[in-house]
Amino acid sequence: MITVVKLSPRGETKIQYQGEVVEHLSHGVIIQAYWSHLTKNLGYTSFEPGDRFIEYYYTDRWYNIFDIASAQGVRKGWYCNIAEPAILFEDRIEQVDLLLDVWVSPEGETLILDEDEFAADTTLTVRQRNGAQQALQELLQMIADQHEAFSK
């Protein structure tokens, strides 16, 4: 088991949970985790108890990717967090969340989320803002090309 620690731009712990490492990458790790909270309806999808998350964390990229399926194995979509490159420890993954998120439906519809929150935040550094904006463009290109985690 490995603990995922999602940090705010200020370095405060926002959430932490456990998953299981399924693959080590040259610059990251893939874990599997399950939604264990109450149903969270986001409007465009909902996370429900038992949903399986295959989570891709990279030490050289400013985002992570969650490939989400229902407990019955039906893909719900991909949720992507724009974040600083992950820091991997033996027992945990730490990543600073940079507020922007991307949702991709199984049909390929893409939503960029929390742009207002990103624009209004006064704690992000110039480095974080630049990294986030570049990462968003890289991620949108990966989605358009159906590359890596987005291959169907």
Q: What this model shows, in words?
A:
With 152 residues, this protein is an alpha+beta fold. It has one domain (2-150): FomD barrel-like fold (Beta Barrel), CATH 2.40.380. It has 2 helices and 11 strands; from the N terminus they run βββββββββββαα. The chain has helices at residues 115-120, 126-145, and strands at residues 2-7, 13-25, 28-34, 40-41, 46-47, 52-58, 63-69, 75-83, 87-88, 92-104, 110-113. The strands form 2 sheets. It has a 7-stranded mixed β-barrel. Strands 4-5 form a two-stranded antiparallel sheet. Strand 7 and strand 8 form a beta hairpin. The chain is globular. The model has no long low-confidence stretch (mean pLDDT 96).
Keywords:
152 residues; globular; seven-stranded mixed β-barrel; alpha+beta; two-stranded antiparallel ribbon; FomD barrel-like fold
Give a quick summary of the entry:
The chain contains two helices and eleven strands, in the order βββββββββββαα. The protein has helices spanning 115-120, 126-145, and strands spanning 2-7, 13-25, 28-34, 40-41, 46-47, 52-58, 63-69, 75-83, 87-88, 92-104, 110-113. The strands form two sheets. The chain has a seven-stranded mixed beta barrel with strand order 1-2-3-6-7-8-10. Strands 4-5 form a two-stranded antiparallel sheet.
